[in-house]
Amino acid sequence: MVSGQNFFLDSSKLFKKRVAKKFYVILLLTLVLTISLIVFNVLDFNSSEVFVGVMAGHETVDELLVFVDEVEEYVNLIVVSELAITTNSTKLYSVFDYLYAKEIYFMPFMEHHNYVDDPNFFRVAEEKWGKYFL
C-alpha cells in the first residue's frame, strides 16, 4: 500500500508540473503577441477613444431620454437594454437619433431570440449613425 500511495503522490506532482508549464507557455505567448502588436502599431494605446458608459433599461422612450439628459455629462456610451425598445425599430430609431445628435456612442442589447422588428435595421444603422453605432 505504501508504494501505491507514492504513485498517486508522484502522479499528482507530475500533473501540477504539466499544468504549470502549460500556464507559463500561454503566458509567454500572450506577452509575445502583445509586444508584437504594439511594435507593429496594431494596438494604439495613445488613442483618445475611451468609453465610459451605462446600460439603460428604462421601459419607455421618454424615461430613457430623460435618463440620457441626466448622464450625458458623465458618459459617452449608452447600451439600450430594454427589450420593449430594442425590439421595436420605431422606438429604437428615435432613441438612437437622439443619442447621435448628442454625440453619444450607443448600442442595443438584444437577446438571441428577440431581435429588432426591422430586418434592415443594422445595415441602415451603420449608414445613418456611422461610428456612433457600436
Biggest sheet, spatial arrangement of strands: 1-2-3
Helical segment tally? 5
Number of domains: 2
Instruction: Give me the strand/helix succession.
Output: HEHEHHEH
Helix content: 55-70%
Question: Helix/strand-derived class?
Answer: mainly alpha
Any idea what the shape is?
elongated
Computed Rg: 25 Å
Main sheet makeup: 3 strands, parallel
The average pLDDT score comes to: 82
Task: Report the end-to-end length measured between terminal Cα atoms.
Answer: 63 Å
**Which range does the strand content fall in?**
5-15%
Describe this structure in words.
This protein is mainly α and 134 residues long. The chain has two domains: 1-44; 53-132. The chain has five helices and three strands, in the order αβαβααβα. Helix 2 (61-71) packs parallel to helix 4 (89-101). The mean pLDDT is 82.
